[in-house]
Design goal:
435 residues; alpha+beta; six-stranded mixed sheet; Aminopeptidase; 2 domains; binds zinc ion
Length: 435
């Protein structure tokens, strides 16, 4: 937690005067409700107008970024582009050893550090045709939505803040992260190697409810092995096929609650064997296990592991367990009541409404206790963290991915307003908030 020199509400000051210093102090105090009067501030208006005027250029830049190769671990060209753009805007820019690009827009001091993270990588193979096709309000290309849109939004936001000479007390830290699609590896590395921020805002996902939770995701490969045999001599010999079949059958019989508060298990790959006429020497299946509940996630993970080992023992074959990713869960909606109450969530809801961003069907939840973005890494560390949308769009992670380009404008305005509201400190502070 950072020391704070912010103006504190009188009752809290009184409390602090008698509280032992060892007691953790709320790192920052934030407005409990968002004041739309901020929209009338001349510097804020200038920033928003700059976004509007520059929007055609923003869309062009978005397309240019989307057409750069970006498969996870191959984000270098995108990273170099973002670095140059940030440097032109006078940010203090660095690239860490994993490839994350960080641009710091210094505050005047005494305010919170607010991190905005947009992942640079896409899931599509290097040889994929990334050429963007524009049809009316829609852009079509693999990766156009997830997450090239957010990268362009981030750069446009930085330019708008600078054009308006907008001053914040806290540092605004803009990060182009890498390897998000490989299990949030870039953000995980970033948080391990940088001072803990006060707020983390992942720019990822479609416009919709504010995501303040973290869906835990475990990817595991269960590999069964045997000595193999020609078919003619195979009768009665151990075969990994039996182990694999039994394990998968038992896993699908497991009983547990469904999402959003329960869990889901998907066996996405079953591989092995190359010939008709032999016992395979190696087979495997993969498990994609997800839950927001850390206890349920770990217990299901252990149960699946036990089932796989028992199946291997019964079939008298070997087993090897390979963990591909293990991203922790943030908690169920009940467990995350405190995170939901953080002003970061309600303020973002208020801003979305002020900008006319619709989040779904009428009456749909404005915030959800889930998420599968760079914000997860903050949530599990108890850093107030959310994910915000970049535009409307769909078919993520497919070749028919698309995005509605006009909606990137309100999405970018939201980033400016979040930066001003939280980076500016506490001009409307009303009550202390302990995250
Ligand atoms: Zn993404």
């Amino acid at each position: 937690m950072r020391p704070t020199s912010l103006r504190l509400a009188a009752p809290l000051v009184a409390l602090l005067a008698v509280a032992p210093l060892a007691a953790p102090l709320a790192a920052q105090t934030f407005p409990t409700s968002w004041d739309p009067a901020i929209l009338k501030r001349p510097d804020v208006r200038t920033a928003l107008e700059h976004l509007e005027r520059g929007f055609p250029r923003q869309v062009d830049e978005w397309i240019a970024i989307a057409e750069m190769p970006g498969k996870s671990t191959h984000e270098q060209q995108r990273g170099a582009y973002v670095r140059a753009a940030m440097e032109r805007e006078g940010l203090r820019v660095s690239i860490d050893s994993i490839g994350n690009v960080t641009g710091v827009r210094k505050g005047t001091g005494g305010g919170p550090t607010v991190v905005f993270a947009a992942h640079l990588d896409i899931v599509h193979a290097l040889e994929t045709n990334l050429k963007v096709r524009r049809a009316g309000d829609t852009l079509h290309a693999p990766g156009i939505f997830d997450n090239s849109a957010s990268v362009a939004n981030m750069l446009a936001t930085i330019r708008a803040l600078n054009a308006a000479k907008l001053v914040t007390k806290g540092d605004l830290v803009f990060v182009g992260t890498v390897q998000e699609e490989l299990g949030l590896k870039g953000m995980e590395y970033w948080l391990q190697h940088n001072p803990r921020p006060d707020l983390l805002i992942a720019m990822d996902g479609g416009l919709g409810p504010v995501a303040y939770g973290a869906l835990g995701i475990y990817w595991t490969r269960y590999v069964f092995t045997s000595a193999g045999s020609h078919t003619v001599t195979s009768r009665g010999k151990p075969t990994p096929v039996k182990a694999l079949a039994e394990a998968i059958d038992r896993i699908y019989q497991l009983q547990f609650g469904a999402l959003p508060d329960g869990a889901v298990i998907n066996i996405g790959q079953v591989h092995g064997g190359v010939i008709f006429n032999g016992i395979p020497q190696e087979l495997y299946f993969t498990v994609d296990l997800r839950s927001p509940n850390p206890i349920l996630l770990d217990s299901l993970d252990r149960t699946i592991g036990r089932i796989a080992r028992e199946a291997a023992d019964r079939a008298k074959v070997g087993i090897r367990v390979e963990v591909e990713q293990k991203n922790g869960a943030g908690g169920t909606s009940a467990q995350l009541a405190g995170a939901r109450a953080h002003p970061l969530v309600q303020t973002t809801i208020d801003i979305q409404q002020a900008l006319g961003i619709r989040v779904g069907a009428p009456g749909a939840a404005q915030a959800v206790a889930t998420g599968s973005t760079d914000a997860n890494v903050g949530v599990v560390r108890k850093i107030p963290s959310i994910a915000i949308g970049r535009a409307y769009g769909g078919n993520q992670h497919t070749l028919s991915e698309w995005a509605d380009w006009p909606s990137a404008l309100p999405a970018s305005k939201m980033v400016v307003l979040l930066a001003v509201t939280f980076g500016d400190g506490v001009r409307t502070v009303s009550a202390p908030v302990v995250p």
